Amino acid sequence: MAKKSVASLQTGSKRLSKAIKMVKSPKTGAYTFVEAIMDPSKVNDFLAKK
Predict the structure, then answer these.
(1) In Å, how far are 10, 15, 29, 33, 35 from 40, measured between CA atoms?
(2) What is the DSSP letter of 40?
(3) Which has the closest alpha carbon to 45: 19, 10, 23?
(4) Across the chain, how many H-helices and E-strands are there?
């Protein structure tokens, strides 16, 4: 029987967001995904960076 686990991004009084960005590799041209868990106020800065 398979178990389903649910991960919560809310730990105590902190609220966190998970941001996923698709980045193209200059060497191969393939796309990869970069994930980060951070404060919601920093998400826009993370997505704007190249």
Answers:
(1) 12, 8, 30, 19, 14
(2) G
(3) 19
(4) 1, 4
* Position 28, amino acid: T
pTM: 0.59
- How far, in Å, CA of 13 to CA of 35, rounded? 22
Cα separation of 15 and 32, whole Å?
Answer: 26
Report d(CA 9, CA 30) in Å as an integer.
29
Query: Rounded to an integer, what is the distance from CA 45 to the centroid of its chain?
Result: 13
The model's confidence at residue 24, banded by pLDDT at 50, 70 and 90, is very high
